[in-house]
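ARCHIVE CARD
Drawer: 12
Card no.: 0347
Subject: one protein chain, sequence and derived structure
Cross-reference: see card 0346
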Amino acid sequence: MTSRPYLAVIQYDGGGFAGWQRQPADRTVQAEFEAVLERLMGCKTAATGAGRTDTGVHALGQGVSFLGGERWDAPASDLRRALNALLPREIWVQQVHVMRPGFDARRSATARRYRYLIGTDEGAASPFRKPYEWALGRALDPSSLESAAAALIGEHDFRGLAAAGANTAHYRCRVALAQWAPRADGVGMAFTVEADRFLHHMVRFIVGTMVDIALGRRPPADFPRLLAATDNLAASPPAPPQGLYLEAVRYPPDLYAEESTS
């Protein structure tokens, strides 16, 4: 039987991991996922993530691709149950899809969506909230946030709002969605951004700079200038990782071979 490509849509609490990507010594989501795949497939099986989330960053919809070996010839629903039975409690497989040949979770993605949560009330310091949001504990000016978000729409060179020395051929990203909104729980703000690609620390640099503007620490005119900057020396410090979530990854519909399981 020819190996079949799969897409697993997974969630994870990033607090106990050194990010998605395998590291020589640190615990990572990729290493944990591949260890379970090896048990199920009977051989080492590579897993490719759509986004290389950093240490402490969470995921609500990370896309992970892998090949199902000859040993595994069962419905996708059975594979999902088997994965969830063996993965550590911080990782949960929401869906499994059978995909068309050539599918790759990273290269085949057409868009990625991130969400950043900020707690503006005193309760953000709670041990049940602090690991999952930026416990800022201060009110933010909504109009300043909205103005900065509007400037993000379109294609820009993000050298001024990304980690220096990124291993990439270019820094241009096309942003389709960028908006701030009050959180549904009424205790802060949520920033949602979707683009064709993201650079290292890009969302965290964007949020850190927007918050400084919304707190009156720097003028609103700084944000358009950073979108035209050739380095990140003028950017604010990046927002902390625990408030960031990889929310969803989009793929062309014709890459799906069958309906998902959930």
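Annotation on reverse: The helical segments are 29-41, 76-86, 142-152, 202-214, 222-227. The chain has a mean pLDDT of 94.
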